[in-house]
Amino acid sequence: MATFLYKLGRLAFRRRHFVALIWVALLTLAGVGAASAPPAGNSSFSIPGTEAQKAFDLLEQRFPGQSADGATARVVFKAPSGEKMTDADNKAAVHKTVDELADGSEVASVADPYKGNAVSKDGTVAYASVKYDVSGMELEESTKDALEDAAQQARDAGLTVEIGGDALQAVPETGATEIIGIAVAAVVLVITFGSLVAAGLPLLTALIGVGIGVSSITALASALELGSTTSILAMMIGLAVGIDYALFIVSRYRAELAEGREREEAAGRAVGTAGSAVVFAGLTVVIALVGLAVVNIPMLTKMGIAAAGTVAIAVLIALTMIPALLGYAGRRVKPAGAKGKRFGRSRKDTEQSEGRPKANLGTRWASFVVRRPLAVLLLGVIGLGAAAVPATSLELGLPDDGSQPTSTTQRRAYDLLSEGFGPGFNGPLMVVVDAKGSDAPKDAFTDVEKRIKDLDGVVAVTPPAPNKGGDTATITVVPDSKPSSVQTEDLVHAIRDAGGDIEAKTGAETLVTGSTAMNIDVSQKLNDALVPYLVLVVGLAFLLLIVVFRSILVPLKAALGFLLSVMAALGAVVAVFQWGWLSGLMGVEETGPVMSMMPIFMVGVVFGLAMDYEVFLVTRMREAYVHGETPHQAVVTGFKHGARVVTAAAVIMMAVFAGFIGSSESMVKMIGFGLAIAVFFDAFVVRMAIVPAVLALLGKKAWWLPKWLDRALPNVDVEGEGLRTADERGADPDEDRALVRT
């Protein structure tokens, strides 16, 4: 591995014009593809294997032509104080609005509130339901403008009017904080390298990689039904890992220059050593993201694969374009330590005191940890355990209009409907009765209606609405609790339990669907998939790390440390987004259940990123150990060379993720916060404290590997031992590959 990457780094350094041309061409090609691609349609949200999805598919078969995927809008009217919606003037204004909406070219139907029993009991609130032929993402701007214009005319007549539903959904925005995150990353890079040129290389390559990845996703969005959130998450992860991977290679390049090597040789060695760690760190991220496919939720699978593709591009760019750009930069990238001359002394001079090297902060911290390993270990574990306590109260759900900011018309419409019709009105349940196997379909429909009315927590039940064939009917059930509540979930289960008895009695199958039931099924499916996903991803990465570190206990320690950091991060997410701690600071206007996908998505992404720091930091320790240092000395040496860079990488990654907290999309905001806090816990508590403490306690046992397994494993030479041996012998690295054995 190290020898191949060494040659690749030197080749990219020499043929830098060709390498740069390839990447610029790929960026141009992806950009042209994105610009010429048709706009993305509505991303399909199907949940195979769930009752809600089965009912939805049945509706499409038995009720053809009803545009099940079409956009919807609820135009909610509220009468002025002291008036009612049934007053003549208010009624006339509503009728005028309904007539104007019905004239739209993409409108399938508009329900008059006075004919559809859509006026609240107190007469103050009414709503008109609008159904469109196409999805919300496919609606023409003229159609959206017509909807808003019709609402504005009703406002001019004195009514309060808000619009709910997905007809006005917009592409989520990330806000200015994303730029702030990149700016923070730039400042950290300048401080780390002491050079604008060296600091600019990781930023430039990361932006090129993200540009290729996101443009490719945009180009394929329509064909693959990729949602707008997919590209945002790919950008988030691609930026973070792209900057970090380039940072490690540039740092190693400067260290090689400091040892007196020529620039081409230094570039080759940087790619051969740090590049090997980049490859395996990237592999763990890709495994974690692609592994999301085991959940069997198409949208989540697409998000994972798209983000994994962006990570793969980041790895390839770090291995090829970074050495090419280093060739262009020439002497403008200084050896490690040279930056200190701007302040009058070089770092090399600073580190000399009375004839012996002066320990840097990383060395002093590592020395402290190896002297007090048990105390540091206990403090780290107890601290993360305390942070994880809120996770015991985790409640899962999917965001709806009730979780949007109060500044949006969708949220205000949601609140008006809750005020006029009750909290459950925003999350009605649709019961589908399949009586094709029943001898008396009409009796079965009536029986289901009666059984549902007798259940607790039901406010209203509409009469069965059969299809043309008379073998299937829909019944709308309005709960007395809000969509994301535990009471509504209990009602869904109660209806399904009653359906089992009805099927045994009448032969008719009862299915519950609708957005609320779909959210409940998604949460359950994700919960059920979490353990298999952990076993798959952690298991594969565990095997990969055994190959990298040639140890059993080091990968095991890495996996257990990851579990600590991810549980602590989930606890922080619950505290902010569910309990409301610091919610104002984070821009969280409405607390509620944590997004259903958050735990499993965080597990996938954080595991991959956690292994980045494990690989980058511990490979330096192993490199020192295999060259004769004691286990304690190896820990200190690893921190001496790697702590500064790992710290910078963690701060950069936190800044990039935190930049997405300003997104208007609640899911992106939550994931940005969760990943940022998870990186903090994992990098600064687990990898910087718990890992060296455990290695100090284990001593030589940390690097133990059964002899039979040592012989069976391939030698990937992540530490670049083959390069060192060849250099010491004064030979070409290719001649010594057979002699390498870590």
Question: Can you tag this structure with a few keywords?
Answer:
4-stranded antiparallel β-sheet, 5-stranded antiparallel β-sheet, alpha+beta, 8% strand
Describe the protein in words.
The relative contact order is 0.12. Residues about 340-355 and about 725-740 have low confidence and may be disordered. The chain is α+β, with helices and mostly antiparallel strands and about 750 residues long. Strands 8, 9, 10, 11 and 12 form a 5-stranded antiparallel β-sheet that branches. Helices cover about 60% and strands about 10% of the residues. The longest helix is centred in the C-terminal third of the chain and has 35 residues, at about 515-550. It starts with a helix and ends in a 13-residue tail after the last helix. It contains 23 helices and 13 strands. Strand 5 and strand 6 (about 355) form a beta hairpin.
